Structures are given as structure tokens and as C-alpha cells.
Amino acid sequence: MILPRREFLRMLGVAAGAATVGGCGREWAVPDRLVDLALRGPGLESQAQTICGLCEGGCGLTVRLVDGMPVGLKGNPHHPLNRGGLCPVGQAGLEVLYAPDRLQGPLRRNPAGEYDSTSWEDALEEIASRIVDLVTAGEGRRVALLSGESGQLFHELATRFVNALGSPNIGHVRDAGVLPFALTQGLDEIPGFDLEQADMVLSFGLDLYEDGPAPLHAISAMIGSRPLEERGALLHVGSRLSPSATKAEIFVPIRPGSHGAFALGVAQVLVREGNYDRRFVAEHTFGFDDWTDDTGRQRLGFRRLLHERYYPDRAARLCGCDPERIVAVARRFAQASAPLALAGGEAVQGSNATSTAVAVHALNALSGSFDRPGGVVIPPSIPLSPLEQSQREEGPSVFAPDGASPVLGVDPVAALAERVLDGSTPIEILFVVGANPVFSSPIGERLREAMKRIPMVVVLGTFRDETAASADFILPTHVFLESWQGSTTPPTVAFSTLGLSRPVVEPLFDTLHPGDILLELSRRVGPPAEAALPWPGYADYLRQRLEGLVISGQGSVITGTFEDSWIHFLEARGWRFLEKEGLEAFWQDLLRESGWWNPVRPRGDWARLFRTSSGRYEFFSQTLEQRLRETGLAEGGTSLDEQQVLARGIAAFGFGVEGDEACLPHFEAPEEAGEEELALVPFRPITARGQLGVTSPMVLEMFGYPVFSGWQTWAELAPETAHELDLEWGDLVEVESERGVLEAVVRVQPGATPGAVHIPLGLGHRESYGAAGGIGANPVEILRQVPDRLAGTLALSSTPVRLRLIRRRPHGGPPPTHGGHAV
Amino acid sequence: MTRWGMAIDLDRCTGCGACMAACHQENNLAAVGAEQAEKSRSFHWLRLLPEVSGSGSEVKVRYLPQPCFQCHNPPCVKVCPVHATYLSEEGIVGQIYSRCIGCRYCMAACPYNAKVFNWYEPEWPGELKQKVNPDVSTRPKGVVEKCTFCHQRILTAREEARAAGRELRDGDVTPACAESCPAQAIVFGDLDDPASRISRLARSPRAFRLYEDLGTEPKVYYLAEKE
User: Fold this and answer.
1) Which of A249, A628, A745, B47 could form a disulfide with A649 if both were Cys (CB 3.0 to 4.6 A apart)?
2) Is residue A195 domain-shared with residue A253, that is, in the same domain?
3) Total domains present in chain B
4) Nearby residues of B68 by Cβ (< 8 Å), 6 or more positions away
5) Chain-centre distance for alpha carbon B49
6) What order do you get walking across the sheet with A456-461 strand by strand?
7) Is the dihedral of CA A27, A29, A34, A40 positive or negative?
8) Residue A309 sits in the same domain as residue A342
9) Can you give the CATH number for the domain in which B112 is found?
10) Which CATH number characterizes residue A297's domain?
11) A717 within a domain of the structure (yes/no)
């Protein structure tokens, strides 16, 4: 490094704590090491609180800084979500920040298809002028924005941006997880599950402690925050003995995709043995017993359906397990005083995902687990300051074309790709923010083609990933430690939180926050965008929205953990948390503690919990019946009678059942693998949380730690299946579906269901992606494109595959153990 | 005299891997990369080992987070030809990197596979070296390294206690693995202090140690799952 001598001496002076006066100001060639040493300074340590931005979980982080540079991360012990714990991906936060191959400045594709560096000024000016052209021509609706950013705050800003241009095209690549709760409870958001006070979780396919929206919260709530000799019980029904499933008191291996049948079998046993909450069922549910509709026709009740169709013998046959196991699980479930049934992971990624989740949720209704400690609750809403009214563009968008109501959705990525490819919705400018759908969606290949037809694709991200590879502009964004963040309650959490963090470190490269990019674009576009988004920066936007928290007087800045009894006392008495002297003091507190939370839930507000037309939990979903009827009418015209219309609707949805059963919790068969085929079940290990985790070398090194696997994709087989195929631990195999082939290393895992092959998601990046470029394989690439029959989202586990040996395990001893128990 | 020990509650541990990652970050373990990993050269100071019992539908698997057990009677110390590994006064098995000649006798002697060999100079591509924890030295290539019970944290805690003019208290020292555990399954402390949490847990009927029959007397106790 070439430095002026004076500058070097000044640095040394700081380092040594001595005053040195420099001389003649000539330049010195100083060894980098010395500069480093000098720059390292006096070694002053400090701490800052922030929120992890690597997945939607929103855990609290404490950053350890030495002379202002972060050198360590740990969980914030005061944060109500994780209470001090931090998952492997969160631990890798600094490795993501400093990851090799991070985008260092804006890139623009030249006519030859190569990327040239450009300046923010030029890039934003060009994009803005294109937007202005469209808006002036009255074609603002040709702008679309697809976001993968979690939390409501950014999404609302992005929606406002797109709407202000006159476009309804705002989409989010999230799970359709809300649909089961829309059908049964009439909700438009996923409810909270009070894990902290539940004494048992019956999990269907959900790796509770690794997967789902907030696994660290699940661990802390079920185990970490409880006294030494206590923890919440877990029962697990699924096709893979995951680390989380090993914690289950009872683990039942079942055929992939048959979770719904198991849940209904359990329901039947509960009802038959009288182990259900009669009062709740009588007062707050609809369709449990046979009922008569307005036309006087007798309708099928849930109870009769269970007895006729889901007795344990039949349910067990559908799941490929012993009926005794269903009875055992049901009796154990009935013993619990505050049980919860949760579906997730493999259970909700097949073509029968929504039906499965509805069947599982019925168990919560039978046990009356609503609006009580340890039950299903609606977390208090976060009192953000409302935004001033601005232009709203309703109606069909490219992500949710005509007819698709929020109740029965479509896959936003698939809709975009198809609409652009068939030319029905021309898009001129597509923004992709914080998402990599080309990599993560089964329809990624089609999307890539569609993107070629869009004149201007702008990708905002941290790496030059698969989606960025088709972009005209790649705009680099901050990593969470460099930026302002406001993260709202992760789905399924029972209380509300708002995580706020400010930049902990100066941006390493020439990057911007996605929010600031949208605000700057609005300024350049001018009115009406500028008027709708008047904030100078994203931080100003956050501050304005968060003022609502202090004005409302609800909740509190995170101040440590409360005893449950204390909260109950306050709940009973009505309370206001520590009042602040003015907004500024509140804002400073909020920044220092990195967040706000509100654990107080209003009780007995049934209208908020059940927003269905009956005002009750609907075993018989009238919303679904209405949709089936509408679909039937559209299909068959008006000449049909009631039942025929319904039958048409049911046929259009491709249900495997008839009549009233379609609207009740029921089992839809998954796609079955044929002879000599295995069912491919992708799963998300904890090391694959979020998109960016795998850019860290450490995360890759420990990627498959439960099976001694790193830097590679593996395929888990049950011992029986491996034996049948003559495969052993460490063999390299080809996994082939009708759509493609990938290579994986065999791991023989006891406990898995025979006939299934489990492959982790997260690897297989073909483009440069931190340390993960070119590592492993992406199972999404070989998936069939089968939608969930109700939600329309593309299924992840409905693909039959064949395995073919490429080569035996090349070298090395048996997998490491501590000596006595070879795996 | 202090005798450091650890208890790991298998009833609470969910096998999430947080401890493993925290150890990597705290102790500056560099990743070896895809090519070396395939040759089984990746290393962790703390691993999660699956233990399988039963078979078929009755199979049981549990994960044992395994740091160095800091044996009271460490076989690795006895075989070291250059006295590079030793048992400290406080019961921690130390490794003097500048003495180690990389013969790996100690690795062979350790019945728990707790020691690892540094095949390469630790490397952090690009800017990654900036995140190195300044409290822990990086190791040169060709030496054996191991879990130290985060002794740098013990030193810091002791300094802080001294500065505050008091004795070290139970709970003052938390190794990185214990700190990161969302299930609070790892307890660390002084086994010689009969009032400490660790010594109470070590006397629990659920407590066991691996291969007690070898006479190594590990100072890491596992607490068995409850039935």
C-alpha cells in the first residue's frame, strides 16, 4: 500500500497512543501487514444489538465489535424470539458479509451479453427514464416487482412504489401457507401457535427445530426457556427421521404425502373415544355433526365422515403404517392438556398440501386449542403508523391473474412466467428483489425464458445468482449488517415483534438498500411516484412507520424476558408499558435494544379468530364450497342442479373425493411413485435456511453435519431401500426424474420410510454464489411441475425418481463415530 | 482449585448444530473446501455424533455434541513425544502449537476422535479474514488442534472478575457452544465447586460419560434423555 508518510505515522500514533508529528510528507511503501496492525487501533471493544436478516426468523443478534469492526455474532439473550440461541446460518452472518464474490457495484449488460460496471447514477437514470416513458404513455401497468424480502414494512413500500406507477403487479415468492387457515378460520394471515405454553406438539412433516418460519424460536419456546427438567413433548409423523424428529416421544414413519390420512385417523380415534373438547366443538365449530342446509338437504358432518372413511385400519393402510401407531398417537395427544398439531415441511409441499394442512388443523379444533395458553392465537397487530392514502391499483395482476382470489391462489412465479410467455400480459420492466426464483422455483427454467422476453429486467441482490444472470441491470444491495432493517413478526409466532436495526458496519462495497433504490427511483420518476414515496431514505420511512408504536402505548421496547405470571397479571389488569418521554427517546431505546414486542393477547375475541361466514371454525368450509360452486357454474352453465354444479367444481379441482367430503377435512392421495421408482422428497436442513447462508464456507463445511456431509448434495435412503438397490453409504448415484438428472452421495439413514429418497434443498448454484457456486446439486431442477390442487403453488415433493450407481465410495474409512456405534 | 467441566443435556439438545457453528466462529476454524472435504479433511472441534439404537420402526437416534472431553487421565498426553499436549492445572488438555510436530500420535491415542489435524494453512478467501476473532490465535499448518473449553473466555472472565474485585462466580464463564445453544442444553462450570450447576448435574442420576470403562475420566458429562 502506498501511503503518505504523514498518514502512516498518524496511524501508528493512534495505535501506540503517542503523538507523532510527521515530517516531509513523502510517500512510503508500507507493508500491508503494518498498515493492518496500525489500523487495528487500540482494540476497543463494543457491542451492538441488531436483527439477523438471513432468514424470515428475525432472531435478535448481539454483534461484538473491535474498533468498530464486527468480529463475532451471538444471539441476543433478551430477544423474545431466540432468547440467546443462534442457528448455524446466523452464526455465519459475518462470513456472508465478507463473502467472496459479493457484488461490489452496479452492473449493466452490454449488447454482447457481458456485464460492465456502471455507476448508480447512470443505472438509476436509465431505469427511471424507461419508467417515465411507460408512465407517460399510460402503460405503467407494464412494470412488475417480484419480492422475496420478508416482513411487511418493505413489502408495503414496494407495493406503494409499483401502485404509484399505475401497476397492480406486485408479487411475493412466499409459501401459500395461509390457505388452510383461510378455508377453516377465514384468516388472511397465518395464525400464531403458542409454543411457549403448549405442552405437546404433534408435528406432521414439520421439522419443528430446524425448519418452518422460526425454528430457533421453537427450540427456545419448547425447551430453552423452560426449567431444567421440563420440556414440551413432541410427536412426529413423517417420512424422514430428521434431527428434530429424533426428539419425538413417538416417531411414526409413513409414506410421503400421506400425513393427511394419519391426521384424520387420529381425529377418528379422538372422536370415537370421546377425547375431544365437546364444548368448543359445540360452541365454536361448524359442520361437526350432520346438518341441514337452507334448501332442506341433509349434509355430511365431520364426525360421520371420520367414522365412515377414516377409521384407523383404513387410515393406516393409506399411510403404510400399523393402525396401532395411529391409536397410540391419538391417545398420547389426548393426554396433553395444551396440545398443538402442526403441519409443515414435506407434508405441505406436495400436490395435496392444502388438504393435508386442513386435516391437521382439524385436530386443533377437536382439542379446542384456540384462544387459550398454548393454543392457536392471533398475535396482536403491530400498531405501525398508517401511510397516507395513495393511488392503489387493485384487480388482476400478472402474479395473480383474473379470477384468482386470495382464497384459492396461484403460484406467482408460474403466473408471471406463463403470462409473459403467452403474451397475454406484456411486462416491460421487471424488478426482482431479494429473491432467486430461477433457482428456487420448479418453474425456474420457464421463468428464465420469460425474462428474455422482458425488455428490462432489474435484479436487486447480493450475488450474481441464477436470476441475476438473466438481468439487464444487477443492482447490489447491502447485507443485513450494513443496512437499516425493520422486520415484523415471523409467521406462526404467537406474540408480535418488530425488529429494528441500524447499520452496524459501513457498507463494504458500493451497495444500497433495496428500499433506498426504490425511493431514489421514485424521486427520479417524479410525481406521482415521488408524492407517494416522499421519504429521503429507507431509515426515514422506518422511523415514520414506527412512531405508531409509541403513540399506541402498546407493547414495549425489548427489555429482557418476563415471567409468564407477570404477563398474565398485566393482561388481567390492562396495562401500558413503560411510557417514553417523546418520540426521540423512544426511537433511541428502540435502536439500542433493536426491537419492540407485545406479548399481550386479547382473549375471547372470537370474531378476530374466526372470520368465516358462520363466525366459527369451519370443519365444513363454506368458503371452499362457494368456490367449488362458482367453478362448477363456470364449467357447466346454469342448466345443472345444485349437486351437479358442485360435482363439476370438484372435478375441475381434481379432487379424489365426492360431494360434501370435498369441503370437509379429507385425504387427497399424493402423486405415487411407480414400480422401481422412489418418491423424491426434498427437505430443508437448518444449514439451508434463508438464501444467503450457503455463501459461507463454514455453512458449507457443516452443511450435512448430521450425516457427515459437507460441500455436497446427498441422498438419504432407508436401510431397506439401500439394501434393495444394492447401494451403500458414500456411493455416488445419479438421481433421474422425467425432467432431469442430478448426482448425489448416498447416506443410509435409519428410520426413514422405505421407497423414499430425501435430498436437501439449498445447494446446486450454477452461478457464482459466495462459496457455494458450483457446489452440489439443486433438487428443484428435476421436479415435475405439479401444482397444489387448492393453492396453485408448485409442489416440491411429487416427483418419482430412479437411482443409478455411478461409482462406489472411493476411499476413506467408515464414517466417523465415537467408536462404539458405527452408523 | 478450579476443575472445569461441562454437562450436555441430551434431553434438551435438538441437534440443531448451533454449538458446532459457534465453535467454528469463536475459535477461527477455517473451512477446508470441497476438494479436501471429500478426502475427509474437514474438521470441527465440536461435532455432533449420531448414535443409533434399535432397528426398523423401533429405531432410536440421538445426537451427541462432542467437544474434547478434557480427560482427567488423558491418553493423548501420554503419547506425545515432544510434550506439546499437556493437562493444565485447571483440568484442560492444552495443545502447544509451536511444539507440535504433527506426528498425530495423540489423535491415534484419543478414544473419542476429539483431536484434529491442520492439513493446511487456514485460509479465508477475500475479505473473510476480517472476521477472525482476535482472541484466538490461528494455527499453522501441520499441527494438531482441539477444543480448549474456550480458555480465552475463561481468561477474560477471570480478568473481569479481578477488575471488579471479586472471585469468579458460577456462570461467569460460558464457552461459545453453550452460549449459542437455543435449548440451553450445555452447562459449564467448576466441578470442584459443590454448589455449581455443573457439579450438581454431574451427580444427577441421568449423568453418564462416554467409555467410562477406559479410565480416561472425561470432564464432559452427558445427561441421558428422560423416558
Assistant:
1) A628
2) yes
3) 1
4) B45, B93, B112, B114, B115, B146, B147, B148, B149, B220
5) 13
6) A115-117, A107-109, A473-476, A456-461, A429-433, A143-147, A170-172
7) positive
8) yes
9) 3.30.70.20
10) 3.40.228.10
11) yes
Which residues of chain B does A819 touch, with a Cβ-Cβ cutoff of 8 Å?
111-113, 211
Scanning A493-512 for CB atoms below 8 A from B yields 508
Q: How far is CA A422 from the centre of its chain?
A: 30
CB contact residues (below 8 A), chain A span 641-700, against chain B: 686-687, 697-700
Q: What is the pLDDT of residue A564?
A: 54
Question: Which is it for strands A69-75 and A60-66: parallel, antiparallel or unpaired?
Answer: antiparallel
Residues A435 and A536 in one domain: yes
**Any residues with CB less than 8 A from the CB of B39 and at least 6 apart, and which?**
A811, A812
Whether A248 and A266 map to the same domain: the answer is yes
Burial class (CB in 10 A: 0-12, 13-18, 19+), A299: middle
Burial of A604 (0-12, 13-18, 19+ CB in 10 A): exposed
Closest CA to A593 of A46, A44, A51, A45: A51
As for how many domains chain A has, the answer is: 4
* Partners of residue B176 in chain A, C-beta under 8 Å: 74
Chain B nearest CA to A772, separation (Å): 10
Q: Is A556 within the bounds of a domain?
A: yes
pLDDT in tens, A80-93: 999 999 999 999 99
Q: Which of A558, A589, A620 is the last residue of a domain?
A: A589
pLDDT band at residue A652, thresholds of 50, 70 and 90? confident
Tell me, yes or no, whether A401 lies in a domain.
Answer: yes
A252: amino acid identity, one letter: V
For residue A701, give the CATH number of its domain. Answer: 2.40.40.20
Please check whether residues A246 and A306 belong to one and the same domain.
yes
Question: Same structural domain for residues A114 and A141?
Answer: yes
Angle at B190 between CA B189 and CA B195, to 5 degrees: 95
Residues A681-685 have a mean pLDDT of 96
- What is the extent of the structural domain holding A802? 678-807
Share of chain A above pLDDT 70, in %: 89
Residue that is written with C-alpha cell 386435516 in the block: A359
Note whether A388 and A427 are same-domain residues.
yes
Question: How confident is residue A39, by pLDDT bands cut at 50, 70 and 90?
Answer: low
For A306-322, the pLDDT digits (tens) are: 999 999 999 999 999 99
ipTM of the complex: 0.95
For the beta carbon of residue A538, count every other beta carbon within 10 angstroms.
23
- Domain-ending residue, one of A568, A589, A610: A589
Q: Name the CA dihedral angle for A492, A497, A503, A505, rounded to a multiple of 10 degrees.
A: -60
Contact between A712 and B34 using a beta-carbon 8 Å cutoff = yes
How many helices and strands, by DSSP H and E, does chain B display? 7, 10
Q: What is the mean pLDDT of residues A722-738?
A: 94
Residue A159 domain-assigned (yes or no): yes
Inspect the interface and report whether the beta carbons of B14 and A812 lie closer than 8 Å. no
A6–B contact, CB cutoff 8 A: no
User: Do A389 and A369 share a structural domain?
Assistant: no
Q: Mean pLDDT per segment of 10 residues, for chain B of length 227 residues?
A: 95 96 95 87 90 82 95 97 96 96 96 92 81 90 96 96 94 96 96 96 95 95 89
For residue B92, give its domain range.
4-223
Which spans in A437-563 are helix H?
437-440, 444-453, 514-525, 529-532, 538-552
